[in-house]
Amino acid sequence: MGKLIFRNTAGVKVKKTVRDGSTIKVVDYLDGFQYTGGILQFFPHAEGYVKATPVNRDNTVYAFDYVYNYTDHLGNVRLSFTKDPLTHELKIMEENHYYPFGLRKYFTTI
To answer: Is 95 left (phi over 0), alpha (psi -120 to 50) or beta?
Structure first.
């Protein structure tokens, strides 16, 4: 398994290539927008990120799910949540717990 990370002259990551046997995965980063294999995955907003899911075969039409992060006073993400598209109720995606000195104790992905 090999990994190459490309950065621009300011040191900002712009591309990552991971080779695992005969499989090559290319991830492109453009001002917060992340593309995997040329398909938009997510982009940030002020309170979290927007997850983009392609809904057609050409990957030209997307469904967007807003994911919000609840952070503590140090900026650690304590809870990530979204609105369930089917029930329209709050759905917790991930919950993080930290030791008093800042190390993550455990997390729960739902």
So the answer is: beta
